[in-house]
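Moderator note: this is an archived Q&A kept for reference. The question asked for a predicted structure of one protein chain; the sequence and the answer are reproduced below.
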Amino acid sequence: MRSVTTAKPFSPFMTILLGITLMMLSFPQLAMASPEKKLGGKIIVSEKRFPSRFDSDKEMIKHMKKVNTHELFATGEKDWEFEYMTFLKKPVGTLQASITFYDVTVKGTEQLVDTFTFYPENAKHNILAGHQRLSKERFAPDRKYLMVFSRGYGQKALAKTVIVLRRK
């Protein structure tokens, strides 16, 4: 008598894994993290203006990584000016926030330099963009500054970055 071999059914784990894999192959955008998730908690700084729109989240993330700088230059005795985009893990939750700058040139210290008020268009947004001018009266070249975005001065940091100011 001849024996017949039958295929064993997939285990529940393998069935779920196969389903997730097929879904991600069918919808590749599901596998891609959103800019808020990929860049959450960061402030992207650029000396050039940001585009007003991007064709995809992937394109936006790629552009932000490319233009992000930690060194800003001012010509002669001019103030430092730059664009920034803040990526929050959750919506800002307020219509009045703060951007605070601390001098962190000396390792282990944070000296408050200045705080600016920021007015989000919508409390539900978690990507916020702005323009900043740092005056030569308050800020100095060849110093390192911690830039912090929060719901208000002294509140928990929602996003941050470090920049160094230079003169050309």
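Archived answer notes: The first strand starts at residue 42 and ends at 46.
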